[in-house]
Amino acid sequence: MKQPIIYFDNYMLRDVELKDAKDMFEYGKDLETVKFLSWGPYSDVTEAYGSIREFFLKRPERGLPVGYAIVDLKNDKMIGTIDFHTMISEGVVEVGFCLNKAYWNKGIMSKSLQKILEVGFYYHGFNKIIIGHANENLQSMRVIEKNNFIFEYEDHKKYYNRFTGLNEPSKWYYLTKETFKK
């Protein structure tokens, strides 16, 4: 399930490929970058390669697109991912993202999310896209709010912090094609 290549500013969204493993390892080994995610930190590049092979590239088997690599066109470097990683029900998907810390606070993820929402609703035909963040993850909250997601609920069991071993509060949001158009 190929996706359209998207260009904005000095960046490109294209399907994740095995050749991205070195760049994914670079940011995936950083604890601060992955502390709210369900994976990492990586200890060597083979883990990043395995993630791409086993998770990203196998998504079409589950009816999902591979996922986008966010590429800095100035140096042809993969700096993050943004993807529909879970099919909740027919036409309802969850989106997630990760970005190399060197690129934080530049608006890249907010624009990447805007672009993948367009692809999700108008190319893939999804009806509803959901997203969540750990309550402490204020950077993700800002990206979500900038894209006009609608707050739906707070959950105290869904987000498992693998570092503390505890389920911690998370906030969940959604957009439908109709609310996205507004």
From TrEMBL:
SUPFAM superfamilies in the record: Acyl-CoA N-acyltransferases (Nat)
Keywords: Acyltransferase, Transferase
Domain N-acetyltransferase: 11-178
InterPro entries reported in the protein's UniProt record: Acyl_CoA_acyltransferase (IPR016181), GNAT_dom (IPR000182), N-acetyltransferase (IPR051531)
Similarity remark: Belongs to the acetyltransferase family. RimJ subfamily.
PANTHER family: [RIBOSOMAL PROTEIN US5]-ALANINE N-ACETYLTRANSFERASE, GNAT FAMILY, PUTATIVE (AFU_ORTHOLOGUE AFUA_3G00765)-RELATED-RELATED
Name under which the protein is recorded: GNAT family N-acetyltransferase
Natural source organism: Acholeplasma laidlawii
